[in-house]
Amino acid sequence: MVSAPAPLHIAILRDMLRRRPEPVCFF
Q1: Does the global pTM surpass 0.70?
Q2: Which has the higher per-residue pLDDT, 13 or 27?
Q3: Could you tell me if 2 and 15 are in contact, meaning their C-beta atoms sit under 8 angstroms apart?
């Protein structure tokens, strides 16, 4: 797990999902 604030973590996930067309399950 990455020890980062929730908003920042969500932003990173959004960026990764935005770059990847296929759905990725992080949780």
Answers
A1: no
A2: 13
A3: no
Distances (CA, A) of 16 to 2, 6, 27: 15, 15, 14
Q: How many helices (H) and strands (E) does the chain have?
A: 1, 0
Q: What local confidence, expressed as pLDDT, does residue 16 receive?
A: 78
To which residue do tokens 């949780």 refer? Answer: 27
DSSP 1-27: -----HHHHHHHHHHHHHH-SS-----
15: confidence class by pLDDT, cuts 50, 70, 90: confident
Residue owning tokens 């996930």 = 13
